Amino acid sequence: MIQKFRRRFIAISTCALFVVLLTILGGMLGVSYYKASQQVTNVLNVLASHDGQIDKDSVTQVTVQKRFGPNTSKESLFQYRYFSVFFDKSGDITKIDSGHIATVDQDAITDMAHWAYKQKKARGHTDYGGTTYAYKLTKKSNGKVSIIFLDESVIMASANELMKIAATMGIVSLLLFTLVLIALSNRAIQPIIEAEKRQKEFITNAGHELKTPLAIIETNTELSEMISGETEWTTSNKQQVARLTRLINNLISLARFDEQPEMTIATIDASAAVQRAADSFEAMITHEGKGFSTNIAPGVKVRADENYFYELCNILLDNANKYCDDGGKVSVLLRENKTTRAVTLEVGNTYAEGKEIDYTKFFNRFYRDDTSHNSKKRGYGIGLSMAQTLVHAFKGKISARYKNQTLYFTIRLKMTK
């Protein structure tokens, strides 16, 4: 249980850091890309308003600072690579200005311009030679059209570099944090470990201490019966002693299960174990006037501890018999699915009042559907918790479902040869 809590603590902490890093770094990247996109738009607007040219006379320092911010100088505009294409009313190219680009030839410029002209979009992007070009199409009042193409690589380079740095730093930070958390997680949850340890020690020690007075009470009751004969009081005393003894044994067993009991995991004959458990309960169940049916496939093999697997079957059958309706039916099913390579063990019992019950709580320790604890059904809410612990130790899954007034507990394990 402690190891499970430790892994969950590490996973949740790592996920929390991941969300924080994603928010911070994602926000930084988003702002960076937005500013770069705005810069592309501003440069295209400047070029479009000056017929595809940037010169000292047509562009003033005031214009640059108004569009790009107070920290931008006029000289910075001359770093960009661009070219312009002009069309007449009929859609024929009248002029190509490629004096500010060196990597795109005239034929490529013509093809890109015709493609952009046919799109009939005011803004767009196109690729050439592995480089992305943003373009702006402007229609003049006289019907002529100009298309300005701008190489985005210079502007987007800083944003792309920031993305690489942020991704690298984020991954490294997350890995370092996870490693440090793994190394120090035991210290972080040490108070919980100590509290759990003291709780288990208290249960075990108290259990052993309580067994002595219970044994004395049982002995005194038997002596009283030998002297004065059996009465309803001595019978009640013996029943309560037996009840307390079972409770103490279950508590001690549960504490030991949490301490990772020694198990010999090997390939076992699940069919034989289930059949043996079913045979031991058949007489008890039928004697109480309930129906009992089994459908156990022969030769089913699973990897588990043989003794604990048999104990698991006993827990499920005891629970089914205990909560089965009077005159109801208990069923046992064991089968294997060769397609999914899974083994299913299912124990069911009729339970007419179980329609509105939350079955996810059945595996909680000390949980009982009868919260008043006045039910005549014996039990302490420990058995199914022990069953879940055993199933997890066998690397399997356990679940509960309700169908046709019948409560089913289903265990799925991996099939083995």
TrEMBL record:
It catalyses: ATP + protein L-histidine = ADP + protein N-phospho-L-histidine. Its EC number is 2.7.13.3. The chain crosses the membrane at residues 9-34, 165-184. Residues 205-417 form the Histidine kinase domain. SMART domains: HATPase_c, HisKA. GO terms for molecular function: phosphoprotein phosphatase activity; phosphorelay sensor kinase activity. CDD domains: HisKA. GO terms for biological process: cellular response to phosphate starvation. Keywords: Kinase, Membrane, Phosphoprotein, Transferase, Transmembrane, Transmembrane helix, Two-component regulatory system. It holds the Pfam family HisKA. One of its GO terms (cellular component) is plasma membrane. InterPro entries: BphY/WalK/GraS-like, HATPase_C_sf, HATPase_dom, His_kinase_dom, HisK_dim/P_dom, HisK_dim/P_sf. It is found in: Membrane. This is histidine kinase. It comes from Limosilactobacillus fermentum (Lactobacillus fermentum). The lineage of its organism: Bacteria, Bacillati, Bacillota, Bacilli, Lactobacillales.
